[in-house]
Amino acid sequence: MAFVGICLSLTAPVKFSGAAGILCYVGAYVFITYDDYDHFFEDVYTLIPAVVIIAVGALLFIIGLIGCCATIRESHCGLATFVIILLLVFVTEVVVVVLGYVYRAKVENEVDRSIQKVYKTYNGTNPDAASRAIDYVQRQLHCCGIHNYSDWENTDWFKETKNQSVPLSCCRETASNCNGSLANPSYLYAEGCEALVVKKLQEIMMHVIWAALAFAAIQLLGMLCACIVLCRRSRDPAYELLITGGTYA
């Protein structure tokens, strides 16, 4: 069982540092992507799971060091602390998974409520942040309008311009002569943006959920190894003598 302790001490820093790095990356990715779509989804509480996994990622760096030191020194108190912290982190990640599913279910209603307002205030002449967000989403997701390009006919911008055209961001990448005119609908993206924005945001939330589930499994493995060392140390006098360098009388 000394071998188990050595293995745990050697792998803990690498394992938990790697897990911490990946969790922080996933959390940062959610923040960056949310910034691109925040005009279509006003509920900032959706970022709570991302905040939590970044915090967990930072904590995992510390956990790795605690597990390493406690295992090398065979400290009963240190190993017990290591197991308790891992248990708390495991519970936190379960909470992240639950929150992820809750907010994932809310995405469609939130987007439906916000996207109507954003499109109605579009200004292609002097674009503000919301207008630039619409153009960005239409180019990135290859979509036009809320449900299709005809939705633009109901916007104030379309009525004011009176040129029977939609924003150039609706033009297909392959349509080099596209000027946004509704007279050439084949040059425009046919799919609406609402469904694609919902899909994108739900994919982001699934990244959080899968990351939390994957590293919850790592926490379980870490707790199992630490518990094995703890139980062996407390029940086997020979193991205690092996660690301390003592001998039987």
UniProtKB/TrEMBL annotation:
Its GO CC terms? plasma membrane
Q: Where is it mainly found?
A: membrane
* Annotated transmembrane regions: 44-67, 79-103, 208-231
CDD domains of this UniProt entry? TM4SF8_like_LEL (cd03163)
Q: Which Pfam families match?
A: Tetraspanin
Q: How does it sit in the membrane?
A: Multi-pass membrane protein
Q: Which UniProt keywords apply?
A: Membrane, Transmembrane, Transmembrane helix
Subcellular location, in the record's words?
A: Membrane
InterPro entries (alphabetical): Tetraspanin/Peripherin, Tetraspanin_CS, Tetraspanin_EC2_sf
Into which family does the record put it?
Answer: Belongs to the tetraspanin (TM4SF) family.
Q: What is this protein called?
A: Tetraspanin 3
Organism, scientific name: Cavia porcellus (Guinea pig)
The coding gene here is TSPAN3
